[in-house]
Structures are given as C-alpha cells and as structure tokens.
User: Fold this.
Amino acid sequence: ASVVEERLSALGNVVVCNDHVALIHPDLDQETEEIIADILKVEVFRRTIAKQPLVGTYSQITNNGGLVHPKCSKEEQKELACLLQIQVCAGTVNRGTDTIGAGVVVNDWKGFCGIDTTVTEINIIDRIFFLEQELEVDEATKKKKYRLRGRSSETAKAHRG
Assistant:
C-alpha cells in the first residue's frame, strides 16, 4: 500500500479524475503525482480550472462529461474537453454555488446533488453527465424531489456522436 505524505492533504479538493485521466493541483509533490498515476492507473495533468488550483473543489468529471467552475472560459472548456476527451460545461450547484465538487457526486450511472440545486442546474448536470432525471413527489410534505438516473456508457457515447 502507498501512503501519500502531502502538505495538501485534502486530496478530494486537489484531485479530480475519471477512469482515464486525473487533473491535479499544480503544487502537489512529484511523488504524490506518481502515486496517483500508479494507483489509479490514469494519465495525470497538473491544471487549474478558472485560475483555481483546487481542481477537485471546482469541478467534477466522469467518463461521460465534466462540470467546471462557472468562470471557466469557453476556450478553457475546449482545452479541458480535448485533454480529457469528454464534453465539458461550466455551471453551478446549490443555487449558484461554484464549489462543484462539494455539491455533486456523480459517476457514469448515478448522480446526487445538494438539496438546494435548482431545476436548471439539474438539467445541466443531466445533460453533461448523460443522466436522466426523475421527478418524485414526497407525499408527506408535497415537496418535489429530483433523483438523477444514469444511462449506460454506450448510450452516452452514442449521444456524444
């Protein structure tokens, strides 16, 4: 087993990855980069997102897509899409919050978001990660609850073209 001895120890804030690629904080130790590449079996790139080095805080990626900080320029989104080989979109969660990594947990099949996430934000999450939303109404409180259902990777790839 490998141990990461890193001054930037909240790895969820400084690393974001899918099954193929990891983006990491530019100041992570070289040894940490090597451990990430070796353990996760991914290609590793040192990046910022919208000039923010906390890539895990300000983005979320899967094998199907990526959601990034709302101030990420169109040009940077294109660069990231090319680097990651997935579609990338800027957006927010929890009524305009830019901390994507704190507000969305998603994989290739399912997604969960904060309770304050708006319908518009859910639609963007649905589209970028190729998830399908399903509206549920809690009969006890009559409140709407949204649950994101995932599509298969094959369906997502077909939608990407």
